[in-house]
Amino acid sequence: MIGHLKGQIISKNPPEILMEVGGIGYELLCPMSTFYELGNSNDELLLFTHLSIKEDAHTLFGFISKDEKNIFRELIRVNGVGPKVALAILSHLSVTSLVECIATEDSDLLAKTPGIGKKTALKLIVELQDRLSKVELVSSHSRTNGFRQSSNPNAKQAIEALQSLGFKTKEANKMVSKIEDKDLTTEQLIRLALQNK
Questions:
Q1: 3.30.479.30, 3.30.230.10, 1.10.8.10, 1.10.10.10: which CATH number matches 155-195?
Q2: pLDDT at residue 71, as a whole number
Q3: Cβ neighbours of residue 172 under 8 Å, at least 6 residues apart?
Q4: What phi and psi values does residue 72 have, to the nearest 5 degrees?
Q5: Cα(9)–Cα(47) distance, rounded to whole angstroms?
Q6: How far is CA 123 from the centre of its chain?
Q7: Spelled out in words, what is the top-level CATH class assigned to the domain 4-63?
Q8: Burial, 40: exposed, middle or buried (Cβ in 10 Å; 0-12, 13-18, 19+)?
Q9: Where would I find the beta strands (DSSP E) of 14-100?
Q10: Nearest to 180 by CA among 154, 148, 147, 151
């Protein structure tokens, strides 16, 4: 498996780039977000990669950040979403926007991606909500749990408890984020959230 490549960009032809690493030219498909950050052709660059192997093709995908690669891998795990559709999603939405979109259940924004209909958008939200909360994203501004950061360290546990009681992520997040007191225990947070519902 090829984890990353470090070399020079020889040519760009969206969504494909040709990258030379140690005298070998690698063709990579990249989301537009990566293209925007590529810089000049002569710069040495590090791209995180994902190798997709199908019976008729071996395709290498390149990403400017580890977060993009991790989200791409989560997207292609969803039934009916292939690498090309995942690439289109990451070209349409940044990692932060996508995570926020999933957390707030904004299927309309997701459905604006070419190749994604309302049905697929809803399916993505349902399948990714739990999974994205477990994905470790490197950049701190792209927290995966989609929580409006409460200053209370017990907020995350309280939201998870409310979800296990049957509340949707968006609803649980809203209930807990209304509570200002940062010294409350998880149990007190849950009780207050349920009272204020």
A1: 1.10.8.10
A2: 93
A3: 159, 162, 163, 193
A4: -55, -45
A5: 10
A6: 15
A7: mainly beta
A8: exposed
A9: 16-21, 24-29, 44-54, 57-63
A10: 151
The predicted model scores a pTM of 0.70
List of residues 6+ apart from 104 with CB closer than 8 A: 146, 170
Please list the rounded mean pLDDT of every run of 10 residues in the chain (197 residues).
91 91 95 83 86 92 94 91 92 89 86 86 87 68 44 74 76 77 79 77
Phi, psi of 191 (to 5 degrees): -60, -45
* Domain locations along the chain: 4-63, 66-142, 155-195
CATH 1.10.150.20 fits 66-142, yes or no: yes
Predicted local distance difference test score (pLDDT) of residue 150 = 53
